[in-house]
Specification:
14 helices; 4-stranded antiparallel beta sheet; alpha+beta
């Protein structure tokens, strides 16, 4: 029968009652012929029924029974696999650095090959990894070719980790590949489109690096370096990981530099970084993104001076910066010495601040 299979469409086959999942890489205008293949017995094969699919003249197979939802995929590109989460945990252990098991990696091919031949995208990815052993010091040209074949197959089936791997391979020239910005860009955008969760965050980090105007040595032509792109990539990561201190700092600073102070304050106030606390205090003191509030400014400066000690070292005396901010407020008569307690004493004020400041309370002038 002739059919148009739409992206992520589930076909309900009325005669058999079997649910057939199309491979997401098949476009809506691709003509296909589909016929079922009957396996002799379920005992002889764990795949009791397959569908033979002819795509633009090339034959392939789609498993008629899938059992596990694939993690890290975007909602627009859902996938199913017959590889269980327990097996994936086992696979990760086999390929763990320092504990790599070569024999077990090779043995996986027997399990993965039949599934990969039937367009199981996860199986294709892990089958590729059984050939991609260069990171473990095992180099073989034929293995390279097999690994790249199955990585491409997995990525073409919209498996996000495979697309992300190919981006890295083409951008850095891994596995004997020539560096190719066009291919790298293609697969990086594919990874962004098809991934979710932690993998999407990792992918967006690449967009942050490429779009950051202050980073001159990392470039990808398809990602322009400008503040708008940089800010948008950070915004997307922040939505995914609102408690990530690095993201809070970067996104909050980018909003601050864009003079979007109200948004910046709402982001930065979640930080665990004492330097960020100092900036928050300054924003309350100066009325950036908020009405001027000296009491709140003092609260954040005290937080820097007291809690910041746990974050400092010889090159990073952040608690001292907090005290200096408080002394400056005293000098400017914005607070009383009583309000500065317990961080104020006449001796410390004189020795740490007064003798180094000018008549306008500017420290170090």
């Amino acid at each position: 029968m002739k059919s148009h299979i739409h992206h992520t469409l589930i076909l309900l086959v009325a005669i058999t009652g079997i649910t057939l999942f199309s491979t997401p890489s098949i476009s809506s205008d691709t003509h296909q012929s589909i016929s079922s293949i009957t396996v002799k017995s379920a005992k002889e094969n764990s795949l009791p029924q397959l569908w033979k699919v002819k795509i633009n003249g090339k034959s392939g197979y789609i498993d008629a029974k899938t059992t596990y939802k694939v993690e890290l995929q975007s909602e627009k590109y859902p996938l199913k696999t017959q590889i269980s989460p327990a097996e994936i945990t086992e696979f990760n252990q086999i390929f763990e650095f320092g504990k790599f098991n070569h024999q077990k990696a090779i043995a996986l091919r027997k399990r993965l090959q039949p599934l990969a031949d039937r367009n199981d995208a996860v199986a294709c990815y892990w089958l590729a990894k059984t050939y991609n052993l260069e990171e473990f010091g095992i180099k073989k040209q034929s293995d390279r070719q097999s690994a790249l074949k199955w990585y491409h197959k997995s990525a073409e089936l919209d498996y996000a980790p495979a697309a992300y791997f190919l981006y890295r391979a083409y951008f850095s020239g891994l596995m004997g590949l020539q560096k190719d910005e066009n291919e790298a860009s293609k697969w990086l955008h594919k990874a962004k489109e098809t991934s979710s969760g932690k993998l999407l965050s990792e992918t967006l980090m690449e967009f942050v690096a490429f779009s950051d105007p202050s980073v001159k040595f990392i470039n990808l032509r398809t990602i322009p370096k400008n503040a708008g792109n940089y800010l948008e990539s950070l915004r997307q990561i922040y939505i995914l990981t609102p408690n990530n201190n690095w993201v809070i700092h970067k996104y909050g600073d980018a909003l601050y530099e864009a003079k979007r102070y109200t948004e910046a304050l709402a982001v930065l106030i979640n930080s665990d970084n004492a330097f960020v606390w100092q900036k928050i205090g300054q924003m309350y003191e100066q009325g950036l993104g908020t009405p001027i509030d000296i009491e709140k400014a003092l609260f954040w400066y005290k937080k820097v001076a007291i809690e910041g000690k746990a974050q400092e070292n010889g090159a990073n005396p952040i608690s001292t910066y907090g005290r200096l901010e408080i002394y400056r407020l005293i000098c400017l008569k914005k607070i009383t010495t009583q309000q500065a307690a317990p961080l104020y004493s006449p001796e410390k004020y004189q020795s740490e601040f007064a003798q180094f400041s000018d008549s306008k309370c500017n420290y170090g002038s």
